[in-house]
Amino acid sequence: MLKWLFTGLCTLLLMACASRSVESAPPLQIEGLVINNQTQMWVSAARLLVPVTGNFVSCGNISPQSSCATTFPETDYTGNPVEITWSQGGQIYSTGQFVIQLPDDLDPDRLAVIQIIITGAGSAGAMIVQRHSDINQPRINQP
Fold it and tell me: Would you say residue 14 lies in a domain?
């Protein structure tokens, strides 16, 4: 009986340790947005919305084959569904709600941005990328 009690207690302790280490992992910090317009037409009113919170980030006008980048105060990535909307050629487009999947190789100690790519009328997607020296990444001026 004592053997079963000891085994059960050890199992509970191991489960508690495992769940604590997962919960204590630092969340990924998002600090900006990059919207790439890969089309031959102007894009306007491009917006990333998190419907659950009502938070959004947007860019006004993006010329063909160019991008818009903006930063915002660092925020934890929570995995909530997002929706991308934009206007192009007199039409308003929406991706509908979807969840941005985290790549397996992300480093939670490095800041990240959400990158949206508009590839055609009514076609867009998003991914989370780590900051690096890429020219399309937002830059933060430091004193």
Answer: no
